[in-house]
Structure prediction request, 234 residues.
Amino acid sequence: MARKIQPPARTWRQRLRRWFLLALVVVLLAPAAVLLLYRVVPPPFTPLMIIRYGEGEAIEKQWRPLEEIATALPRSVIAAEDNLFCSHMGFDREALKSQIEAAQAGERPRGASTISMQLAKNLFLWPDRSMLRKGLEFWLTPYVEALLPKRRILELYLNVVEWGPGIYGAQAAAQAHFGIGADALSEEQAALMAAVLPNPREWIAGDAGAYVRERAAIYQRRVNQLGPGYFGCW
Prediction:
């Protein structure tokens, strides 16, 4: 009787290569799968929400589709955070270039994040200023732009962004700061909410000081100068 020849066992290098390729596929496809899901369903939570909850902070959030948010708010947020939202593909190249030049000159970078970049950070990453986190944000942003229409990017951002301790999204923020729904925000209130986004845990839209009110007035003027046609991508 002929002896059956057993195939050689995989070497540890073959196994390592197989696991590496599998991990690479997961890393590449997982963000796409999540974004395709979020294209049709609201995110149940974000990493920041989990972190804050773990620190003992209550979470207030109520999803609202974009058509149930006053038009003044997305316009104010674009004017404040990302003037080129409707025309860029995720990155404001001129702003990034100026920040790189500032860093090379020894100046402190002021940030050049677009709404798409901030959404990538909110959906997938943690809140710090490390180079690792920023690098991952740069890697994830093309996924956001490729898989989500501009309207959905804006809708997701307005519903997950932090607007105060434990306050996430336009509806919860409008109720907390002004006692109204997001659909009832005036132009002034929307501008105030946009003005506090850089520091929502310290600045309060509903009880704004002179500095925040000055910022809000600038954004309100900018929205009026740009005109309704400028915001046509959503």
Q: What stands out?
A: Strands lie at 60-61, 162-164, 167-168.
